[in-house]
Amino acid sequence: MSANHQKITTRCDSIDSILQGGISVGEVTELCGENATGKTQLCLSIACQLPPSLGGMYGATIYIHAIGPFPIRRLTSLIPFILDTALDPNDNPCDHITTKQVESPYELPDVLDWVVKFIKQSHNTCRHVRLVVIDSIASICTSHFENTAQGLESRTQLLRAIGYGLKSIASQYNVAVLVVNNVIDVFPIDSDSSTHFMMSSGRKVRPALGNGWTRNIGTRLFLSKSINSADQTYVRMISILLSSMLELDVCRFKITEKGVVDA
């Protein structure tokens, strides 16, 4: 498989199937959806450390998070299922996951510079960084700007710079970049409410960061949930909303103690 078409498995066959192998290396993939649709669970399930023969990259991960502490207990519980028989008793998988908390969007340019330096340093080890996760880009960027023309312009310029930086990291260093975006409700007064929306929990929603941000991503995945009236359980779906390489498609999945699995 060429460098431009390398994939990292999600360890969920149905999701890997519509993604033609998993999360793409060399581009920015966005996960968008409302709270509790499984975005963080999917981020934690990307099996970067597996060898290529099992769908991984034998690589390391940088995980940038915004809200609260990194979910290390959940990750630790998932590792035996994600890595399965590839676990080496002499190798702690958590040693290959570097986390960093960011609370302000103004920190992000410096953080991306740090990411580049860390990736370069990893090339001196046996575990190159092959996956960068930001969970979530919307949480970092949506609440720090005034709702004025100047505030919106500042946000637009910063997002443009961040988006360009992430695209450059993905393509120049051949890593998969996975960013989480929230959604906001679509109201009738919205100029594009009749066509530009998705449905989740019976509501019309759209990605929180707007159309300008969309230029930065190669693939957008939308996670949604609804209630099965028969047994009151969640029905979870993941849809490919846009992609430079993939056909638009959709599949079901579940979240269990083993992580994201086939429904």
Quick structural gist:
This is DNA repair protein XRCC3 homolog. The protein has 263 residues and is α/β, with parallel strands linked by helices.
Brief descriptors of the model:
about 260 residues; alpha/beta; Rossmann fold; nine-stranded mixed β-sheet; three-stranded antiparallel β-sheet; about 30% helix; globular; ATP-dependent DNA damage sensor activity; ATP binding; DNA repair protein XRCC3 homolog; Rad51_C
Write up this protein.
The chain is of the alpha/beta class. The chain has a single domain (3-262), classed as P-loop containing nucleotide triphosphate hydrolases (Rossmann fold). It is built from seven helices and 14 strands. The chain has helices spanning 13-18, 39-45, 72-83, 108-122, 137-141, 149-172, 210-214; strands spanning 7-8, 23-24, 28-33, 60-65, 97-101, 129-135, 176-181, 183-185, 198-200, 203-207, 219-228, 233-243, 250-256, 259-262. Strands 5-4-6-7-3-11-12-13-14 form a nine-stranded mixed sheet. Strands 8-10-9 form a three-stranded antiparallel sheet, with no helix packed on it. A two-stranded antiparallel ribbon has the order 1-2. Helix 4 runs parallel beside helix 6. The longest helix has 24 residues, at 149-172. The radius of gyration is 18 Å and the shape is globular. The mean pLDDT is 89.
Write the CATH homologous superfamily. P-loop containing nucleotide triphosphate hydrolases
Q: How would a textbook summarize the main sheet?
A: 9 strands, mixed
| Overall number of strands | 14
Helix-strand makeup class: alpha/beta
